[in-house]
Amino acid sequence: MKPCKQLIFAFLTLALSHTVQAANEPLDRVSVQINEGIVLESEITNMLKTVKSNATAAGQSLPSDQALRTQVIERLIMTRLQMQMADRIGLHIGDLQLDQTIGNIAKEQKMTTEQMKQKISAEGMSWSQYREQLREEITLGEIQRIQVQRRIQVSPQEINNLVAMIEEQGLKQIEFQIGHILIEIPNNPNSEQLAKSSERANTVLKRINDGADFRRTAIAASAGPKALEGGIWDYMNVNEMPTLFAEVLSDAKSGDVIGPIRSGAGFHIIKVMDARGLQTKEVDEVRSRHILVKPSPILSEERAKAMLDNFVTQIRAGDADFAALARQYSEDPGSGAKGGELGWADPSVYVPAFSQTLNELEINEISEPFRSSHGWHIVQLEERRKTDATDQFNTNKAHQLIFRRKFNEELQNWLDEMRAEAYIEVFDADFNRG
């Protein structure tokens, strides 16, 4: 559906009406329309400043301002599309959840919230700006989890096959840091479009083989999800990375450049930026149980938290039984009927707020109520143990690796589909990617 242009004209008229008051200041303007939303020129300018500042601090060279601007606009488009989706399904991160997350971040950095405020201020950002930026980051993570997780199915056969392969071949003791450049092709390309993209991919490959900086080239040329980060993916084992990477990297070594490889999305160029041995061979597992209460239009955030505060008081006083409360009140369909029992698991399989809370508990300790993406929880840590991640590979780890691989693949598919269905117009012909 094409959104009406009155929104744009109304905004421009309003902006123009303020020119007398701000005669000496550059006039902000609408630079991109995304469905019925907009991106202002000031947003692009601010992100450009941030990217350049971060690059300077890291000693990283950047491509031309035009190429960098194109990548920044694309990142803002994808962010706005995901935020619009969050609005449509009613996903909003409230202040209680935001405060909980900020408290967790402060704990991780071994400081108080007040010290964290001072640190943020010293870095040149206001506390309100930081809060809203963090609220957006949490929202993006949540909308991705909600929309992508339901597209993923991990079959028992896939798990059994991976476990059998691991038992036969051993878990590869190598993690790769990957550099990735995607030269995109249009949907249903004709032969001329394919040839043009292929030629561009070969040109980029030659540039890299001739010694061009990979990160700078990725920022300038890539349409991949990590383009603005120089195309760099974090360290991954071959069993958890996207299939396209895994198929060509099993015997690769640091510095290898592979490609172009054709897929439905376009032509891929992959560079092994680094390879290292697995950093952890032993895994700390925990056995825990929890009670989950989900806020709703009927049950507010405050009332959900107060309900769990009351449960904690009753359990600690010996006036109530954790398992009985979980069976009666917990809204986790998988564990509620079992008295909240979650069984043995690597804490990293849980969402960050849950995992961090578990890591801070002593054996048999019950947490204070905390907010995760699923709702409000209390959790009790029952036991800890160490397991060998290589010799005692099990179905939980197999599921985790397969899920991570599929999540990365499906996330990109979902983003591509959402962009293809959106109405996007960039009001700057020199940089138009819409």
Short description:
It contains 14 helices and eleven strands. With about 425 residues, the chain is α+β, with helices and mostly antiparallel strands. A four-stranded antiparallel β-sheet has the order 4-3-6-5, with helices on both faces.
Describe this entry's structure for a reader.
It contains 14 helices and 11 strands. The longest helix has 27 residues, at 395-421. Helix 2 crosses helix 3 (65-88), helix 3 packs across helix 6 (127-149) and helix 6 (127-149) packs across helix 14. The two termini are 15 Å apart. The chain is 48% helix and 18% strand. The chain has 434 residues and is an alpha+beta fold. A hairpin with a 3-residue loop joins strand 5 and strand 6 (266-277).
- Quote the average pLDDT: 86
Number of strands: 11
* N-to-C CA distance: 15 Å
- What would you call the structural class? alpha+beta
Percent range of helical residues: 40-55%
Low-pLDDT runs of 5+ residues are: 1-23, 429-434
Gross morphology:
globular
